[in-house]
Amino acid sequence: MRLGKISGNGEFTRRCQHFFESRYGFHKCLLTTSCTDALEMAAILLDIKPGDEVIVPSFTFVSTANAFVLRGATILFVDSKQDHPTMDESLIEALITSKTKAIVAVHYGGLGCQMDVIMDIASRYNLFVVEDAAQAIDSFQEGRPLGSFGHLACFSFHETKNIQCGEAGLLVINDPSLVKRAEIIWEKGTDRAAFSRGEIQKYGWKDIGSSFLPSDLSAAFLWAQLENLDCIQSRRKEIWEAYHQFFTHGIELGLLDSGFLHQVRMSVKDLSFTTVSRASEANAHLYFLVFDTGRDRSLALQNLMENEILAVFHYQSLHRSSFAKVHFPGQAEKSLHAADHFSDCLLRLPLFYELPELSKSF
Ligand SMILES: *Cc1c(COP(=O)(O)O)cnc(C)c1O
Predict the structure, then answer these.
(1) Which atom of ligand 1 is nearest to the CA of 108?
(2) Residue 264 CA: distances (Å) to CA of 238, 296, 309, 348
(3) Alpha helical stretches, state H, the chain
(4) 268 lines ligand 1 (CB under 6 A)
(5) Which carries the bigger pLDDT value, residue 1 or residue 153?
(6) Residue 337 Cα, ligand 1 centroid: separation in angstroms?
(7) Ligand 1 midpoint to CA 156 (Å)
(8) Percentage of residues of the chain with pLDDT beyond 90
(9) Considering Cα of 105, then 317, then 75, then 61, what sign does the dihedral take?
(10) Closest residue (by CA) to atom 1 of ligand 1?
(11) Which pLDDT belongs to residue 362?
């Protein structure tokens, strides 16, 4: 407030963008009003037009597909892996046609897709890759941060993510040839960003665009979170590990209260489920169990609710949605068994910074 400027592209916006560029080596970062908006910017930037095809996993959030549907694209849905909610890279190539423009890789729960495989396919067919890294801040793959592989990547700072400011997102532009136009789309279709840097005398209408900048108030909140990123991340990883040791070896690490863990144990007793291990480089965004049947998941959810533990399921396969049935009927008829299995059987346990303290009240 004291800086006298709280609209977008101010001091805190620049600090946040610089943080990502320097910490993760992303080529260029633009803070956006949401990850949904970053995805919409990506679709505009890649010149997605009616008739173009975009390959998207079925087990993802609506925005992953909607951003491209808004430009008139046809979505081709990919199944998940049998034992993992991220998309099965081996199924991508069969979906590519002369109309394919882009592949969207979603890093579910901060667990990376196999980016070397996806980038190889993309370069052979001359396609763009957009990483939907909404949940993947501070996650790595073979030492490289997620969000640094694709031509573009999109992050979310919605309050449900590891680092948040209510609502905001980030567009990462790794392909230098896309930077100039990205700034114009970001600033309502004008070259105002260049004007703000003193590079030109006046700014004007150059392209299509929209108001994709968050207020600097949001950026200031986000900056405070980023200053505490390491602390937040290490706490989340500890909580993740506490759950995992408990479920895989019955070991209590002492971080989560015994009473709380006892309630969790009783809630899933006699039900069959598996856990998915965390790649050591992942960001502990989610801890989830995958039940053998939808019935077992419902029972677990109900038991946890009765014990006042809020557990939630996650995405419902997009190819089975009522929207897909109307707009992509051929896709809706596909059977994507793995995606449906995760839609029906996956359950997320509470994982947030204050959980260790709160668990003492059980
Ligand atoms: C949260 C999320 C989004 C949307 O993020 P917003 O910032 O709320 O727009 C998109 N994709 C995935 C995979 C998400 O988890």
Answers:
(1) 13
(2) 17, 14, 8, 12
(3) 11-24, 35-45, 62-69, 115-125, 179-186, 192-196, 216-227, 229-249, 258-268, 294-306, 322-327, 329-332, 337-345, 355-358
(4) no
(5) 153
(6) 23
(7) 6
(8) 96
(9) negative
(10) 134
(11) 85
Q: Whose CA is nearest to atom 2 of ligand 1?
A: 134
DSSP 31: E
**Burial classification of residue 270, based on how many CB atoms lie within 10 Å of its CB (0-12 exposed, 13-18 middle, 19 or more buried):** exposed
pLDDT reading at 211 higher than 90: yes
For the Cβ of 301 lying below 6 angstroms from any atom of ligand 1, the answer is: no
- 331 pLDDT band (50/70/90 cuts)? confident
What tens digit of pLDDT does each residue of 242-280 get? 999 999 999 999 999 999 999 999 999 999 999 987 678
Q: Is 35's C-beta closer than 6 angstroms to any atom of ligand 1?
A: yes
Q: Mean pLDDT over residues 118-135, rounded? A: 98
For residue 160, the ligand 1 atom closest to its alpha carbon is 1
Chain centroid to CA 215: 22
pLDDT value for 334: 87
Q: How far is CA 220 from CA 3, 16, 19, 160, 331, in A?
A: 11, 8, 13, 18, 43
Say if pTM beats, i.e. exceeds, 0.90. yes
Distance between CA atoms of residues 212 and 126, nearest Å: 28
Length reported for the chain: 362
How far, rounded to the nearest angstrom, does the alpha carbon of residue 281 sit from its chain's CA centroid?
16
Q: How far is the CA of 41 from the centre of ligand 1 (A)?
A: 14
Q: For residues 141 and 163, what is the distance between their CA atoms, to the nearest angstrom?
A: 19
Q: Which ligand 1 atom sits nearest the alpha carbon of residue 167?
A: 7
Ligand 1, closest atom to CA 36? Answer: 9
**H/E element holding 29?**
strand 28-32
Mean pLDDT score across all residues of the chain = 96
